Every structure is written in C-alpha cells, then in structure tokens.
From TrEMBL:
InterPro entries: Methyltransf_25, SAM-dependent_MTases_sf. It comes from the Bacteria. Transmembrane segments: none annotated. Residues 41-110 form the Methyltransferase domain. This is Tellurite resistance protein TehB. It comes from Acinetobacter johnsonii. CDD domains: AdoMet_MTases.
Length: 123
C-alpha cells in the first residue's frame, strides 16, 4: 500500500488536474437510484474529491477517505469537507453508510485483498 500512496503523494497535483473535472454523471445514476434522499455516502479512495463534491451538490451527506495525504488535502480544498486520511483496510464502520462509492480505488488493490475489503460481515 505504501508504494501506491507514495505514487499518489508524488503525483497528486497532476492526478487532481486530470480527474477533478471528468464528467461522471452517467456512472453516478445507476448507483444513486438505489439510495434514499439525504443518504449517507462514503467515497472510499476519494482521490481528487470529484465524486464527493458531485454527491454533496446533489444533497447527499458524504464522508470521504483516501490513503494519500496529498490527495486528502486536495479533496478537502475542493469539497470543503473533512476528508480523512485512512486506508480502506482500516475501515470498520461500513454498515452506517447507505452507499459506498469505490470509483477508482479497487482497481489499485491486489485481487486477493478485494474479498477482505468487500466482506463487511465484521463491520
């Protein structure tokens, strides 16, 4: 995980500039249609904060985490919320959320660990 975090810390500005304005509306719709109004969403691995901000603008309550300290700062600046620097392996409160957005974070995860992330039976 440190290798990935180091990469994003070193390239945070470029990553932010290349992602924060990408149009994702068509990808949000299938996710959001199953959530109640005012739902609490966790943006897991929020990166630039693009998705966090989009959900916030739609009236949802949003919490966000990312492992990269540099991207956490960028996401805080963009969204105005207290984005937490945290690994999703340390997350133990998934059950409180109405929805969890994992827009790009799972692709950076070794296949053997995806089952651990998605197994919320202990959350």
């Amino acid at each position: 995980m440190n290798q990935t975090s180091n990469y994003y810390n070193q390239h945070a500005q470029a990553f932010f500039e290349n992602t924060y304005q990408v149009e994702m509306e068509s990808l949000y719709a299938p996710f959001l249609r199953y959530l109640p109004e005012q739902a609490l969403i966790l943006d897991l691995g929020c990166g630039s904060g693009r998705d966090t901000l989009a959900f916030k603008k739609k009236g949802y309550q949003v919490e966000a985490i990312d492992y990269s300290a540099e991207l956490v700062e960028k996401a805080r600046e963009l969204t105005g919320i207290n984005v937490r620097q945290q690994s999703f392996y340390e997350l133990n409160e998934v059950a409180k959320y109405d929805g969890v957005c994992v827009s790009g974070s799972v692709k950076m995860t070794p296949l053997v660990n995806i089952a651990v992330i998605l197994d919320c039976s202990t959350c």
